[in-house]
Amino acid sequence: MVTRRGLLAAGATGGAAALIPAGWAGRALAAAASLDARDIPKYVTPLRIPPAMPTVATDPERDTYEIAVRQFRQQILPPSWPRTTVWGYGSTAHPGSFGYPAPTIMARVGRPVRVTWVNQLVDDRGDYLPHLLPVDPTLHWANPAGGVEQRDRHGRWDGSPQGYRGPVPQVVHLHGAHSSQESDGHSEAWYLPVARNLPPDFAVSGSAYREFRSRFAERSGLRWAPGSATFEYANEQRPCTLWYHDHALGLTRENVYAGPAGFYLLGGGDEWPEEALPGPAPTRDDPPNASYHDIPLMIQDRSFTADGDLQYPTRYSSGDGPPVSVPGFSGSTIVVNGRTWPTLTVQRRRYRFRLLNGCNSRFLLLSVAANPTARPARPVLPVWQIGSDGGFLPEPVPHERVLLGPAQRVDAIVDFTDVPAGTELYLVNEGPDGMYGGGRPGVDFPPADPQTTGQVLRFVVTDAAGTDPSVPPEQLRLPSHPRLGAAQRVRRLSLNERRSGGSTVMLLGVLDERGRGLPLRWSDPVTEQPTLGDTEVWEVRNFTHHVHPVHLHQVQFELLGRGHSGRAQPGPGERGWMDTVLAYPWEVTRIKAHFDLPGRYAWHCHLLEHEDNEMMRPLNVLPRGGAAAGDGGASGGAGRPGTASTGAG
Ligand SMILES: [Cu+2]
Fold first, then answer.
1. Which of 336, 312, 309, 341 is nearest to 449 (CA)?
2. Which residues pair with 316 in a beta bridge?
3. What is the pLDDT of residues 530-551, one digit of tens each?
4. SS3 letters for 284-319?
């Protein structure tokens, strides 16, 4: 009998190749040699703390930004090693601001932020830049080469061994934000750069772009310029840690892998005195060498060629076919804030860390240990979780180990006050080097290679330079947490795997009349169509062997329960607002959300390789009284029809 443990072990042998299905007889493109991650010295570069993104205007109404994505070279590997060509965001008014990760957008609750996002993936002559990585043109993807008729559909391969080599679609999603549809960064609202040599028959924007451009113009009087989109974020939600990244249809995995991502820290609100927490974070007018005690950590896995370029697995369906998307990715190094295995000098005081799993498909199981390679890791300091994706928890939760799926955030405090100066501590990772099916490291799956991907960051403790006014985490009282009212509807949904063309495809879906998973693709009729103002319970049944991080746009939701019945209590770190929830194999994950913005959104798996290959479905919020054609969700259930919802901020 094949056990789950056996399957997982077979799929987790480490390295980028581990996620390519067994028996794959692909032809390797004359690929550059890989860099052996064991050869890269660790902890030789200081952690880079992204500065605050400069504005182009601040007035009583709002903060205004103009942010482009560009291609540049950056030192990601240690000094004296080759630099890496990446993409990243920065302020067009401040050419020195471009970085991977991007500068952090510092926002305040109740104060709108307006960003004009510009696709500047062009070279010095104004010609478009092709992708850094081979692109599978046969997926259901943006497909600009298909022209207006065939955009946002499956594309055709033109014979290039690199796949699609044309101009690259971009559209920015602010992950976790309560955004109106035209500002959400819908996957079909992408746009190409304004380039000298755009082929005339290409679509220059996605099929949703014009509609959202009109809506935004109606709302604000401002019309998007070609090669750009202007979005407005109301910041009417609880203070929290958001992040922004590319979301183009069928291309997100490779776009995000190339670098474009940044933090968006929403502070303020009248519910909580920020002085009680460790700070400050970077602000827009800091002096050089300011010191920070509120530090975002974007943790990602990356592989490199011997020349220092980003490496991403390429496989082929046959000897002379196009490059084909891979079902998962496991990089050979850990990169934090754009540097491999950095080191952070900390004082004997408390620090707030905004932990973000920015990996394509790697799950992280993090702890603070004195020995970087001992397994099981022996945690020496608790990681105090004070917040989840959407804001503060009801109370601080001490963790020995913190589990983070792709796109999830943990707002954490680590207290170094009692650690002797001179001590070296390590943030280590015991998540797997392959797909994650749940369970414990060393029991249900081998932990990540302790020599490489099992290590993240080194802390070097020094004496405190001043007093620490922050409140110890065990004494913190966090603001009370509003709960959603009764649901009007229960929706039964599924996560499925299906064989397709020799490999396994993961698909979202609904349930059929016998309670079995009925998988649906991105282009199938819309089934998730809540009515504006409604609160819904979503019961997501996972019929696959893998954990999938399920992300809903527009909302922050509550996790009601999990387990085989969906009634098991969420863990203590899951009792706040979330926008991405881990759905475990063969379990029911029950969430509750309130939909108070009309229009076209999406829900999807945040394993980027799944999301890009159909594991995404429309989420359309209909006006009250509107027809719900094709709406196949189950109604009634535990909901009490007619019960008014109390809503959520
Ligand atoms: Cu998935």
1. 341
2. 323
3. 999 999 999 999 999 999 999 9
4. CCCCCCCCCCEEEEEEEEEEEECCCCEECCCEECCC
- Within its chain, how far is the Cα of 221 from the centroid? 31
- What does the mean pLDDT of the chain come to? 91
Residue 449 is classified by DSSP as: -
Strands 379-381 and 402-404: unpaired
pLDDT at 629 over 50: no
pLDDT tens figures, 64-103: 999 999 999 999 999 999 999 999 999 999 999 999 999 9
471 C-beta neighbours (distance < 10 Å), count: 17
CA 549 to ligand 1 centroid distance, Å: 7
The pair phi, psi for residue 510, each rounded to 5°, is -115, -165
Ligand 1 center to 355 CA (angstroms):
21
Instruction: Quickly count: other Cβ atoms within 10 Å of residue 551's Cβ.
Output: 24
**CA–centroid distance, residue 408 to ligand 1 (Å):** 14
Kindly state the percentage of the chain with pLDDT values over 70.
91
> What single letter denotes the amino acid at residue 440?
R
User: Ligand 1 centre from 645 Cα, in Å?
Assistant: 31
Q: How far is the CA of 68 from the centre of ligand 1 (A)?
A: 29
Give the pLDDT band (50/70/90) at residue 32: confident
pLDDT over threshold 70, residue 135: yes
Q: How far is 416 from 459, CA to CA, in rounded Å?
A: 10
Q: How far is 600 from 606, CA to CA, in rounded Å?
A: 18
- At residue 48, does pLDDT exceed 90? yes
State whether the Cα torsion 431-437-439-442 is positive or negative.
negative
Give the CA distances from residue 260 to residues 46, 72, 74, 257, 338, in Å, rounded to whole numbers and listed in that order: 21, 11, 13, 8, 11
Burial of 472 (0-12, 13-18, 19+ CB in 10 A): middle
Element containing residue 214 per DSSP (H, E): helix 209-220
Looking at residue 480, what is its pLDDT? 79
Task: In whole angstroms, give the CA distance from residue 398 to residue 378.
Answer: 15
C-alpha 435 to ligand 1 mean position (Å): 10
Residue 26, pLDDT above cutoff 60: no
Nearest Cα residue to 305 out of 588, 34, 9, 616: 34
**Looking up tokens 């050979």, which residue turns up?**
332
**Tokens 């101009």 identify what position?**
167
Phi, psi of 427 (to 5 degrees): -85, 115
CA of 56 to the centre of ligand 1 (A): 38
- Are 131 and 254 within 8 A, CB to CB? yes
User: Peptide bond before 101: cis, by omega within 30 degrees of 0?
Assistant: yes
pLDDT digits (tens, 9 = 90+) for 140-183: 999 999 999 999 999 999 888 889 999 999 999 999 999 999 99
Looking up tokens 């042998």 gives 13
The pLDDT of residue 265 is above 90: yes
Cis bond leading into 41, ω under 30°?
no
- The tokens for 571 are 């863990």
C-beta separation of 605 from 564 below 8 A: no
Residue 625 has a pLDDT of 80
Task: Note the pLDDT of residue 269.
Answer: 80
